[in-house]
Write a structure and sequence with these properties.
Length: about 290
Protein backbone atom coordinates (compact mmCIF):
# COMPACT_ATOMS: atom_id res chain seq x y z
CA UNK A 1 0.00 0.00 0.00
CA UNK A 2 1.84 2.89 -1.22
CA UNK A 3 -0.24 3.70 -4.24
CA UNK A 4 -3.94 3.86 -3.59
CA UNK A 5 -6.43 5.35 -1.20
CA UNK A 6 -9.24 2.80 -1.24
CA UNK A 7 -8.52 0.98 -4.47
CA UNK A 8 -6.51 -1.71 -2.71
CA UNK A 9 -6.04 -2.79 0.88
CA UNK A 10 -2.73 -2.62 2.72
CA UNK A 11 -2.14 -6.28 1.98
CA UNK A 12 -2.36 -5.77 -1.77
CA UNK A 13 0.93 -5.01 -3.46
CA UNK A 14 1.29 -1.91 -5.63
CA UNK A 15 2.89 -2.06 -9.04
CA UNK A 16 6.61 -2.61 -8.65
CA UNK A 17 9.16 -0.02 -9.75
CA UNK A 18 11.38 -2.91 -10.84
CA UNK A 19 10.87 -5.87 -13.11
CA UNK A 20 9.08 -8.87 -11.66
CA UNK A 21 12.06 -11.02 -12.59
CA UNK A 22 14.31 -8.98 -10.31
CA UNK A 23 12.11 -8.49 -7.28
CA UNK A 24 9.48 -10.42 -5.39
CA UNK A 25 6.50 -8.84 -3.68
CA UNK A 26 5.74 -9.72 -0.07
CA UNK A 27 2.35 -9.62 1.65
CA UNK A 28 2.99 -6.06 2.79
CA UNK A 29 3.35 -4.70 -0.74
CA UNK A 30 7.05 -4.10 -0.21
CA UNK A 31 9.86 -5.31 -2.41
CA UNK A 32 12.59 -7.79 -1.55
CA UNK A 33 15.27 -9.70 -3.38
CA UNK A 34 14.37 -13.27 -4.31
CA UNK A 35 16.67 -15.99 -3.08
CA UNK A 36 18.32 -16.75 -6.41
CA UNK A 37 19.46 -13.29 -7.44
CA UNK A 38 21.59 -10.40 -6.29
CA UNK A 39 21.47 -6.66 -6.53
CA UNK A 40 23.62 -6.85 -9.66
CA UNK A 41 20.60 -8.31 -11.44
CA UNK A 42 18.54 -5.12 -11.17
CA UNK A 43 16.74 -4.56 -14.46
CA UNK A 44 15.45 -1.27 -15.72
CA UNK A 45 11.98 -1.58 -17.28
CA UNK A 46 11.95 -0.94 -21.01
CA UNK A 47 9.78 2.04 -21.92
CA UNK A 48 9.04 3.30 -25.43
CA UNK A 49 11.39 5.98 -26.76
CA UNK A 50 8.44 8.37 -26.99
CA UNK A 51 8.13 8.27 -23.19
CA UNK A 52 10.83 10.73 -22.27
CA UNK A 53 12.07 11.28 -18.75
CA UNK A 54 10.13 14.37 -17.76
CA UNK A 55 9.74 16.07 -14.42
CA UNK A 56 6.21 17.10 -15.42
CA UNK A 57 4.25 15.19 -18.09
CA UNK A 58 3.25 17.05 -21.22
CA UNK A 59 -0.42 16.12 -20.68
CA UNK A 60 -0.48 17.68 -17.21
CA UNK A 61 -2.72 20.72 -16.76
CA UNK A 62 -2.53 22.90 -13.66
CA UNK A 63 -5.94 22.93 -11.98
CA UNK A 64 -7.43 26.37 -11.44
CA UNK A 65 -8.68 27.53 -8.06
CA UNK A 66 -12.37 27.17 -8.91
CA UNK A 67 -11.86 23.62 -10.16
CA UNK A 68 -10.05 22.74 -6.95
CA UNK A 69 -12.84 24.13 -4.77
CA UNK A 70 -15.36 21.98 -6.63
CA UNK A 71 -13.22 18.84 -6.53
CA UNK A 72 -14.72 16.32 -4.10
CA UNK A 73 -12.64 13.76 -2.14
CA UNK A 74 -14.34 11.01 -4.14
CA UNK A 75 -13.36 12.57 -7.44
CA UNK A 76 -9.75 12.93 -6.28
CA UNK A 77 -9.73 9.31 -5.19
CA UNK A 78 -11.07 8.22 -8.57
CA UNK A 79 -8.41 10.25 -10.40
CA UNK A 80 -5.72 8.85 -8.09
CA UNK A 81 -6.89 5.32 -8.85
CA UNK A 82 -6.98 6.07 -12.57
CA UNK A 83 -3.32 7.02 -12.26
CA UNK A 84 -2.64 3.66 -10.61
CA UNK A 85 -4.35 1.85 -13.49
CA UNK A 86 -2.27 3.78 -16.03
CA UNK A 87 0.95 2.94 -14.17
CA UNK A 88 0.12 -0.75 -14.02
CA UNK A 89 -0.49 -0.69 -17.77
CA UNK A 90 2.90 0.94 -18.29
CA UNK A 91 1.36 4.27 -19.32
CA UNK A 92 3.62 6.32 -17.11
CA UNK A 93 3.06 9.77 -18.65
CA UNK A 94 -0.70 9.36 -18.25
CA UNK A 95 -0.19 8.11 -14.70
CA UNK A 96 1.96 11.12 -13.85
CA UNK A 97 -0.59 13.52 -15.32
CA UNK A 98 -3.22 12.11 -12.95
CA UNK A 99 -0.94 12.06 -9.91
CA UNK A 100 0.43 15.58 -10.46
CA UNK A 101 -3.12 16.89 -10.71
CA UNK A 102 -4.21 15.04 -7.55
CA UNK A 103 -1.15 16.26 -5.66
CA UNK A 104 -1.70 19.90 -6.64
CA UNK A 105 -5.33 19.82 -5.53
CA UNK A 106 -4.55 18.00 -2.28
CA UNK A 107 -1.87 20.53 -1.42
CA UNK A 108 -4.43 23.29 -1.88
CA UNK A 109 -7.31 21.59 -0.06
CA UNK A 110 -5.57 19.45 2.59
CA UNK A 111 -2.12 20.99 2.95
CA UNK A 112 1.35 19.66 2.23
CA UNK A 113 1.58 17.69 5.48
CA UNK A 114 -1.63 15.68 5.09
CA UNK A 115 -1.05 11.93 4.71
CA UNK A 116 -3.04 11.76 1.46
CA UNK A 117 -0.94 14.54 -0.04
CA UNK A 118 2.26 12.77 1.02
CA UNK A 119 1.04 9.47 -0.40
CA UNK A 120 0.51 11.10 -3.79
CA UNK A 121 4.18 12.16 -3.73
CA UNK A 122 5.15 8.50 -3.37
CA UNK A 123 2.98 7.63 -6.37
CA UNK A 124 4.77 10.32 -8.38
CA UNK A 125 8.17 9.07 -7.23
CA UNK A 126 7.36 5.49 -8.25
CA UNK A 127 6.29 6.62 -11.73
CA UNK A 128 9.41 8.75 -12.13
CA UNK A 129 11.54 5.77 -11.12
CA UNK A 130 9.87 3.66 -13.79
CA UNK A 131 10.73 6.38 -16.31
CA UNK A 132 14.32 6.51 -15.03
CA UNK A 133 13.84 10.16 -14.10
CA UNK A 134 16.10 9.61 -11.09
CA UNK A 135 16.30 13.19 -9.82
CA UNK A 136 12.54 13.66 -9.78
CA UNK A 137 12.05 10.28 -8.11
CA UNK A 138 14.64 10.91 -5.40
CA UNK A 139 13.28 14.40 -4.70
CA UNK A 140 9.73 13.10 -4.35
CA UNK A 141 10.78 10.18 -2.12
CA UNK A 142 12.79 12.59 0.02
CA UNK A 143 9.87 14.97 0.47
CA UNK A 144 7.45 12.12 1.20
CA UNK A 145 9.74 10.48 3.75
CA UNK A 146 10.28 13.84 5.49
CA UNK A 147 6.52 14.28 5.75
CA UNK A 148 5.98 10.82 7.22
CA UNK A 149 8.85 11.28 9.68
CA UNK A 150 7.35 14.53 10.92
CA UNK A 151 3.98 12.90 11.58
CA UNK A 152 5.63 9.97 13.35
CA UNK A 153 7.70 12.25 15.58
CA UNK A 154 4.60 14.22 16.48
CA UNK A 155 2.68 11.09 17.47
CA UNK A 156 5.60 9.67 19.41
CA UNK A 157 5.96 12.96 21.27
CA UNK A 158 2.26 12.98 22.14
CA UNK A 159 2.41 9.38 23.38
CA UNK A 160 5.52 10.16 25.43
CA UNK A 161 3.74 13.00 27.20
CA UNK A 162 0.99 10.71 28.36
CA UNK A 163 -1.53 11.46 25.61
CA UNK A 164 -3.39 8.36 24.49
CA UNK A 165 -1.90 7.30 21.18
CA UNK A 166 -3.73 5.87 18.18
CA UNK A 167 -1.65 2.76 17.62
CA UNK A 168 -3.50 1.76 14.45
CA UNK A 169 -2.93 5.18 12.87
CA UNK A 170 0.67 5.25 14.08
CA UNK A 171 1.42 1.86 12.56
CA UNK A 172 -0.19 2.85 9.27
CA UNK A 173 2.09 5.89 8.95
CA UNK A 174 5.13 3.79 9.91
CA UNK A 175 4.23 1.24 7.26
CA UNK A 176 3.95 4.01 4.66
CA UNK A 177 7.37 5.34 5.69
CA UNK A 178 8.96 1.88 5.59
CA UNK A 179 7.61 1.25 2.08
CA UNK A 180 8.74 4.67 0.90
CA UNK A 181 12.24 4.10 2.26
CA UNK A 182 12.43 0.68 0.62
CA UNK A 183 11.45 2.03 -2.79
CA UNK A 184 13.77 5.02 -2.31
CA UNK A 185 16.64 2.69 -1.45
CA UNK A 186 15.84 0.62 -4.52
CA UNK A 187 15.94 3.75 -6.69
CA UNK A 188 19.34 4.73 -5.27
CA UNK A 189 20.74 1.20 -5.67
CA UNK A 190 19.69 1.17 -9.33
CA UNK A 191 21.80 4.31 -9.75
CA UNK A 192 24.69 2.53 -7.96
CA UNK A 193 24.51 5.04 -5.12
CA UNK A 194 24.94 2.15 -2.72
CA UNK A 195 26.11 3.95 0.40
CA UNK A 196 23.06 6.21 0.52
CA UNK A 197 20.79 3.32 -0.50
CA UNK A 198 22.02 1.37 2.52
CA UNK A 199 21.11 4.30 4.78
CA UNK A 200 17.53 4.13 3.52
CA UNK A 201 17.30 0.36 3.93
CA UNK A 202 18.68 0.56 7.47
CA UNK A 203 16.13 3.26 8.33
CA UNK A 204 13.41 1.05 6.86
CA UNK A 205 14.59 -1.79 9.14
CA UNK A 206 14.33 0.46 12.21
CA UNK A 207 10.87 1.53 11.11
CA UNK A 208 9.76 -2.09 10.78
CA UNK A 209 11.00 -2.65 14.33
CA UNK A 210 8.81 0.22 15.49
CA UNK A 211 5.84 -1.37 13.75
CA UNK A 212 6.52 -4.73 15.38
CA UNK A 213 6.77 -3.16 18.84
CA UNK A 214 3.56 -1.19 18.36
CA UNK A 215 1.82 -4.29 17.01
CA UNK A 216 2.77 -6.20 20.16
CA UNK A 217 1.07 -3.49 22.23
CA UNK A 218 -2.05 -3.72 20.07
CA UNK A 219 -2.00 -7.56 20.28
CA UNK A 220 -1.94 -7.91 16.51
CA UNK A 221 -0.01 -11.11 15.77
CA UNK A 222 -0.44 -10.69 12.02
CA UNK A 223 1.13 -7.22 12.01
CA UNK A 224 3.99 -8.42 14.22
CA UNK A 225 4.66 -11.28 11.80
CA UNK A 226 4.50 -9.05 8.70
CA UNK A 227 6.78 -6.40 10.20
CA UNK A 228 9.38 -8.98 11.25
CA UNK A 229 9.20 -10.71 7.88
CA UNK A 230 9.73 -7.41 6.09
CA UNK A 231 12.68 -6.70 8.40
CA UNK A 232 14.24 -10.07 7.51
CA UNK A 233 13.83 -9.37 3.79
CA UNK A 234 15.39 -5.93 4.16
CA UNK A 235 18.34 -7.46 6.00
CA UNK A 236 18.78 -9.83 3.08
CA UNK A 237 18.91 -6.89 0.66
CA UNK A 238 21.45 -5.13 2.88
CA UNK A 239 23.64 -8.24 2.92
CA UNK A 240 23.48 -8.47 -0.88
CA UNK A 241 24.48 -4.84 -1.26
CA UNK A 242 27.47 -5.26 1.00
CA UNK A 243 28.63 -8.38 -0.85
CA UNK A 244 27.98 -7.26 -4.42
CA UNK A 245 29.21 -3.71 -4.21
CA UNK A 246 31.98 -3.83 -1.63
CA UNK A 247 30.65 -0.65 -0.06
CA UNK A 248 32.95 -0.41 2.92
CA UNK A 249 35.80 -2.43 1.39
CA UNK A 250 37.48 -3.97 4.44
CA UNK A 251 34.28 -4.31 6.45
CA UNK A 252 31.83 -5.27 3.72
CA UNK A 253 32.08 -9.02 4.32
CA UNK A 254 31.59 -8.58 8.06
CA UNK A 255 28.60 -6.30 7.53
CA UNK A 256 27.06 -8.78 5.11
CA UNK A 257 27.48 -11.62 7.60
CA UNK A 258 25.88 -9.58 10.37
CA UNK A 259 22.89 -8.79 8.16
CA UNK A 260 22.46 -12.39 7.01
CA UNK A 261 22.79 -13.81 10.52
CA UNK A 262 20.22 -11.40 11.92
CA UNK A 263 17.88 -12.19 9.04
CA UNK A 264 18.25 -15.93 9.67
CA UNK A 265 17.44 -15.39 13.36
CA UNK A 266 14.25 -13.55 12.43
CA UNK A 267 13.21 -16.24 9.93
CA UNK A 268 13.81 -18.89 12.60
CA UNK A 269 11.80 -16.89 15.12
CA UNK A 270 8.91 -16.71 12.66
CA UNK A 271 8.95 -20.48 12.28
CA UNK A 272 10.29 -20.85 8.75
CA UNK A 273 11.54 -24.33 7.90
CA UNK A 274 15.30 -24.88 7.72
CA UNK A 275 15.05 -25.77 4.04
CA UNK A 276 13.24 -22.55 3.12
CA UNK A 277 14.95 -21.10 0.00
CA UNK A 278 15.70 -17.76 1.68
CA UNK A 279 17.37 -19.47 4.63
CA UNK A 280 19.34 -21.85 2.44
CA UNK A 281 20.56 -19.03 0.22
CA UNK A 282 21.71 -16.86 3.13
CA UNK A 283 23.45 -19.74 4.88
CA UNK A 284 25.36 -20.48 1.69
CA UNK A 285 26.28 -16.79 1.44
CA UNK A 286 27.80 -16.97 4.91
Amino acid sequence: ALHTDNMTSVNTAPSTPLSHESFAVDSRGAYSLPTNTSVNNFRTPQTPMSQKSLSTPTSYQTPNVQDMKRCSPGALMALNNLGVVHERKGEFQEALACQYYVHRVRVELLGEEHTETIQTLVNIANCCQRLRDWNSAVNAYNEAAAGYRKIIRSRESAAGSGVASNLEGYMKICRSLAGTLRNWGTCLARQHNISVALDKFYEAIKTEEKIANAAVESSSEELVFNAKLSKAQLLGIVGCLHIDHRVSHLRCADQAKLAFREAIEVYDELGFEKDHPALQWMRKSL
